[in-house]
Amino acid sequence: MTAVYASLGAVLLLWVVLNMKKNRSDGEYIKRVHPFRTMLGYIMPTRNESVVYFDDYINVESLLDYLKQAREKFPCDVTHCLVAATGFALRDNPKMNQFLSGHRLYQRKDEWVTFSAKRQKLNKKAKLTAVKYKIDPEHSFRDLCEWVHAKLNVVRSDKVTREDKELGFFTKWPRPLLKFGVGVVRWLDYHNILMPSFIEHDGFYTSVFIANLGSLGMQPGYHHLYEWGNCPLFMMAGKIEDRPMVEDGKVVVRKMLHVRWSYDERIDDGLGARFGMASMKHAMEHPFEYFGCLADDGSDRVAFAKMTTAHPDEE
User: Fold this and answer.
1) Phi (first) and psi of residue 22, to 5 degrees
2) Is residue 288 situated within a structural domain?
3) Cβ within 8 Å of residue 312, ≥6 positions away
4) Are 4 and 83 in contact (CB under 8 A)?
5) How far apart are CA 154 and CA 157, in angstroms?
6) Domain count, the chain
7) CA gap 227, 229 in Å, rounded
8) DSSP state letters, 200-258
9) How far apart are CA 237 and CA 78, in angstroms?
10) Which residues in 83-110 are b (16+ Cβ under 10 Å) and which e?
11) What CA–CA distance (Å, rounded) separates 40 from 266?
């Protein structure tokens, strides 16, 4: 009987220790949280019952002029610009880079952007891949483009990547074993004991996920948030098209990019969402100022660490 009590005591102690553990490899626990926001994590425990959708339109006429000049110097497209502008927004709006895990609110330690890409352009049979990019404070827009270009060259080649090997291995497991394994990972994540290397390489443990459907000639949809991982934001971009806009009381036609955001409302309030999306839009509409990297002498090189975007009330 003594052994039974000892075992129960050990289990209880382990349960208490696991539930007291608040530190994570990818985030800092936020101690001071309004009681209402704390309760949101319990009354709305999943992301898709907490999602809010936003529509926005971005004037990309300056962006198209910028890309025309930039492509003569390095590989870049609209997707690169979306990643960079979102990186600027995350750095300028830290609350945009919060996430919930285990009913607790965390500040992500770094800015991460994951985006999807076809392994072969416009090939219906080609597999999708997810590229996860860490915003390096010392990187410029050109550095970002060259890193992404090199990464895509690898995943679009015949080379078997680490992700291919891992998925190929796990999907060979019997269904009950695979289901159990997924449950174990969720349990480890909930208790903040999931391996840092797993979190670092999994594209769903990210600040924001981007899908540029414009590269496929499509309009953006309203995307759900993934319950796997801890990504609280999803942004979809559509194809660029001519749209009527009102400027100074007159209707004019402009090249516009339609974007749609899926936002986990538990991480911040509506005003924070407004500032974050406005920062991203502002960077996209002022590419020569924010992306630069066109001058041969490097005088217009701008690192992420030195970039500050403008909030709508500051313009």
Assistant:
1) -115, -15
2) yes
3) 274, 275, 278
4) no
5) 5
6) 1
7) 6
8) HH-TTSSSEEEEEGGGGT-----PPPPSSS---EEEEEEEEEEEEEEETTEEEEEEEEE
9) 9
10) bbbbbbbbbbbebbbbbbbbebbbebee
11) 6
Does a structural domain hold residue 141? Answer: yes
The single residue listed with the structure tokens 């991982």 is: 229
Q: Which of 191, 31, 43 is nearest to 107 (CA)?
A: 31
Task: Kindly state whether residue 170 falls inside one of the protein's structural domains.
Answer: no
23-32, 63-72, 116-125, 241-250: range with lowest mean pLDDT? 116-125
DSSP one-letter code for 63: H
CB 106 within 8 A of CB 27: yes
> Cα–Cα distance between 23 and 256 in angstroms, integer?
43
The CATH number given to whatever domain includes residue 246 is 3.30.559.10
210 is a domain residue: yes
pLDDT in tens, 115-159: 987 655 655 655 677 899 999 999 999 999 999 988 887 776 667
pLDDT tens-digit series, residues 198-242: 999 999 999 999 999 998 889 999 999 999 999 999 999 999 999
Distance CA 129, CA 102 (A): 28
Q: Which residue, 176, 122, 93, 140, is CA-closest to 299? A: 140
> What percent of the chain is helix, strand and coil (3-state, nearest 5)?
45, 25, 35
* Host domain of residue 275: 24-156+196-314
* Amino acid at site 76: C
Residues 6+ apart with CB under 8 A from 161: 154, 155
Q: Which residues partner with 298 through β-bridges?
A: none
Q: Which two tokens stand for residue 231?
A: 């990504």
Q: Radius of gyration of the chain from Cα atoms? A: 22
Are 50 and 44 spatial neighbours (Cβ–Cβ below 8 Å)? yes
> Which neighbouring-strand residues pair with 209?
114, 234
